[in-house]
Write a structure and sequence with these properties.
The structure is a homodimer.
Chain A lengths: L3 H10 L6 H10 L8 H11 L5 H13 L4 E3 L7 E3 L7 E5 L5 E4 L16 E12 L1 H5 L2
Chain A binds a DNA duplex through helix 4.
DNA sequence: CTTTGTGCAAAGCCTTTGCACTCGC
DNA sequence: GCGAGTGCAAAGGCTTTGCACAAAG
């Protein structure tokens, strides 16, 4: 992910305003490998700036996602997850017990051509590997 | 997918009752390649049995999913999609414009071992290929 | 100063659930 | 008959939105 300073630049370039709330969201995402939900980002932000509302967090996350600075994942854990790592092409591993999401750096380059219908423009492909993480497995 | 008659058997074997509503859901799913939402299944069922409620459809779909007779997909199109094809291992192609979901018979067998953490039990892997289908592309 | 952002609370969408009635077994 | 299934409507979780005030450029 870009640094908070770079994001500030990008926002300014788009005519978006720089507010302490937005910077707090940038900070909360920076080098955050946990694939947080909007709710977790909000908690992290509120810890240091108690008045920030969920609305502001959602809006900032959506702005970032539209600018392509983060990506939004739907992995079936109820809420959307946000991934600050958009530079490296990667996939995800999901623990169905605790909802943990982890990056997976595998190359998934199947010969798609064979089964993709004529005229379908492929934009991207996401692999989600599901299972149970060690600490959840240990609990049983 | 199993035939409605086979599903009837399976339901009976589980001590679940056979009702015309449930059979109507079985019929609506049988050999249905559209990956319908709960709502579409409901519409199809209502066409022939106008009093069936969404509740009943959801419950039957959930029962089927728990029994492993259908699978539930979350592909980011808003509502969950139900896939009656659980026999063939396959993946999915999603049109981000119209929400169409199509089966994709590609082998995605990356060497997961390399990047999966110690102790993580892999249950399954789903590939979602996103893009835009021909008829949506033609609209622009 | 004008335009954009913020906070609150209310509404929206999809799905599940509580209750009383009905029906399969 | 008994217990499971059904229909309705209301509630639940996550996300978005309308409004009035505050703040950035």
């Amino acid at each position: 992910m870009r640094t908070p300073a770079e994001l500030t630049e990008r926002f300014r370039a788009q005519g978006l305003k720089i507010t302490p709330q937005r910077v707090a969201v940038f900070d909360a995402l920076h080098d955050n490998p946990t694939h947080p939900t909007a709710e977790s980002v909000h908690s992290a932000v509120v810890a240091r700036m108690p008045t920030v509302s969920l609305r502001t967090v959602y809006q900032t996350l959506n702005d970032l996602a539209e600018m392509g600075e983060i990506s939004r994942l739907e992995v079936g854990t109820g809420s959307a997850r946000f991934d600050p790592n958009v530079e490296e092409r990667h996939h995800h591993l999901v623990c169905e017990s605790c909802g943990m999401v982890r990056d997976l750096h595998v190359e998934v380059a199947p010969e798609l051509g064979d089964d993709v219908p004529e005229g379908f423009e492929v934009v991207g492909a996401e692999l989600v590997v599901r299972g149970r993480c060690r600490s959840c497995a240990d609990k049983d």
